[in-house]
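Design job #97: recover the sequence.
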């Protein structure tokens, strides 16, 4: 998603754009990059391998590097999430914000947005921030549960947007989560995919697996009794499901083939009456 943003901006300004993606990046995301004219390098490795190679290339060719967790403007830009949440809730701060977390930039940006408002006297407190990670990519949650030091952990999850072995903004994220009196939780890929389907069916919001992780986290916290029934909770949905169709195609359901004309109408009638 960050790559898509860069490719769109580069196209609008007529600038060349070079993107490094892991070899398992969703096809839909790559097509958007190509349509915007970006040169896309598919790295035979993980997100972290692509990240490191991108930094090396930027240093070698003098490119502007906007990598998440490397470019300081990324966290500053994501502050607008906190600002918009506060504004849309009439400056009444939510009790808790659940954030799908990979590198940790989004959750730090949310914290910084609320922190700015608090220092300006526009809100009276900070919300509790909860990082939601996949069980297959839990580096920040492990740090929060341990000594606070973020260590690499091999990432393997269907939620590609939060599939990060070594979070590049991990230390800052851990500090901000703790300063908000928050914590981190992990959810399984099965919980994420189930939450993605349930979220779409009950709200009309079709999220990609990474985005649905926050809803999976909400369901887990409710089941564990870690959220009060009257608590005001905000979930960040960080990406569209249309960009990760392959991840959910097997669980989405199937279409019903029918003939055209009266024969098709007869089958429709039978099915509707059966329901």
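Job complete. Output follows.
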């Amino acid at each position: 998603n960050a790559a898509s943003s860069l490719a769109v901006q580069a196209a609008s300004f007529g600038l060349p754009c070079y993107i490094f993606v892991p070899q398992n990046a969703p096809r839909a995301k790559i097509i958007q990059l190509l349509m915007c004219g970006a040169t896309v390098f598919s790295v035979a490795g993980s997100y972290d391998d692509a990240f490191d190679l991108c930094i090396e290339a930027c240093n070698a060719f003098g490119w502007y590097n906007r990598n998440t967790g490397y470019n300081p403007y990324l966290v500053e830009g994501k502050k607008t999430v906190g600002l918009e949440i506060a504004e849309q809730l009439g400056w009444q701060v939510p009790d808790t914000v659940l954030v799908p977390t990979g590198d940790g930039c989004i959750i730090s940006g949310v914290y910084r947005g609320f922190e700015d408002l608090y220092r300006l006297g526009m809100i009276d407190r900070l919300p509790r921030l909860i990082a939601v990670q996949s069980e297959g990519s839990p580096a920040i949650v492990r740090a929060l549960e341990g000594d606070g030091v973020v260590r690499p952990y091999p990432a393997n999850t269907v939620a590609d947007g939060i599939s990060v072995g070594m979070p590049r903004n991990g230390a800052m994220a851990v500090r901000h989560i703790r300063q908000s009196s928050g914590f981190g939780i992990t959810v399984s890929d099965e919980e994420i995919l189930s939450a993605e389907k349930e979220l779409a069916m009950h709200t009309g919001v079709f999220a990609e697996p990474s985005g649905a992780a926050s809803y999976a986290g909400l369901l887990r916290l409710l089941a564990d009794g870690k959220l009060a029934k009257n608590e005001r909770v905000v979930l960040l949905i960080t990406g569209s499901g249309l960009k990760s169709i392959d991840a959910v195609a097997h669980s989405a359901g199937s279409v019903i083939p029918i003939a055209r004309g009266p024969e098709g109408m007869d089958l429709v009638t039978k099915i509707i009456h059966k329901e």
